[in-house]
Description:
Elements: H1 17-31, H2 51-70, H3 81-85, H4 109-130, H5 137-166, E1 188-191, E2 194-198, E3 214-218, E4 221-224, H6 230-238, H7 250-258, E5 267-270, E6 273-278, E7 281-284, H8 296-306, H9 313-320, E8 327-328, E9 349-350, E10 353-359, E11 385-388, E12 405-407, E13 416-417, E14 421-423
Parallel strand pairs: 8-9, 10-13
Antiparallel strand pairs: 1-4, 2-3, 4-14, 5-6, 6-7, 10-11, 11-12
Amino acid sequence: MTSATVTPVESAPSRSLAERFFAVRAATEGLCAPLEVEDYVVSSMADVSPTKWHLAHTSWFFETFLLAPHVDEYVALNPRYAFLFNSYYVQAGERHCRAQRGLVTRPTVREVYDYRRYVDDAVLALCARIGDDVEHPAWAILELGLHHEQQHQELLLTDIKHVFWTNPMRPTFRAAGATVPTAAIQGWRHVAEGVRTIGHAGGDFAFDNEGPEHKVYLNAFALAHRLVTNAEYAAFIADGGYRQAALWMSKGWGEAREGAWTAPLYWEHHDGAWHEFTLAGTAPISPDAPVTHVSYYEADAFARWAGYRLPTEAEWETVARDFPVEGRFVERGAHHPSADAKAGMQQLYGDAWQWTQSAYVAYPGYRASPGAIGEYNGKWMCDQWVLRGASCATPRSHARLTYRNFFPSDARWQFTGIRLAADA
């Protein structure tokens, strides 16, 4: 196996649309470099899609929402791909059952790569036609497609991690990196009460759910400087955190019992110590690294056990607004959270997505886009929680202050971690 490398994709206007498209598409395929052809086809649970499906679905997205409406002469390579590689866009047509994606052996991996080349050629031809005309109606869809593909780059990594974990051979995706430093002592950033502004104000790319910009009132609060560590979470486990119903939401307690949860996903206890499966294989947990692969239920229970709470997304954004979008992203190649010994606010971006106690609902004044493309975010505003920041699997050019990621309460296979908050 070879190491997976991802070249940073700049979003600055200095890069042409064609250059950005080519870079994003190449980055996706770069992540597949360590895989054998057999790895591309497997789905290990309903939430996990095969690597082959991610490669094809992102191509279908460009084909369906960009090429078909804006290139009159475009002809689909295979009309049946629309059924196989649509995800959840009901208005775009019928779809193959998500839980059965791993049963589809044809088209082959080679044919999927051929499909990507076919779509690439058509998109690059369209880019040449558009040039620098940012007012062209295809421009916004193409930019949305680039960020959509970057979302799937992260999903590709989290999904193949679950696939490898379910394999008794426990294969290694990439070699382990350098040892992590010791985590800084936990500190707090205090914020006074007042009216704050959150949400995307326009001017550069954002998903529609990030706006409109609006005012919120916040009581005084404090936000932890860093993420909760493996050692801190192990103390929660040792103190019976998974056995104390009083710490848990009722539904979370039921999920933990039914799923026999005793630790974060990928943790195993043997030889008298906790070990963790990573994309570099299984090894003893790094005590000072951020804990990851915990559900909202687990994050909330830990916060209650520790005597604190999870932040709201408005609190998180209010603090993060004062700091640059810097962190350990997918381009670093570690594909796992790391500790940071520096003082002050850290790990706002990269390492692990951070659960908030904010339900994923529309901002005041939000309107979903018309047509099938409006299903991208709007129809999921129910029974989900907002996560902020970014993770070690997030591309750098995909992270930003106002990004609203979201998952249901029981999701554990993503790089999700915990940042604590407190009332003043």
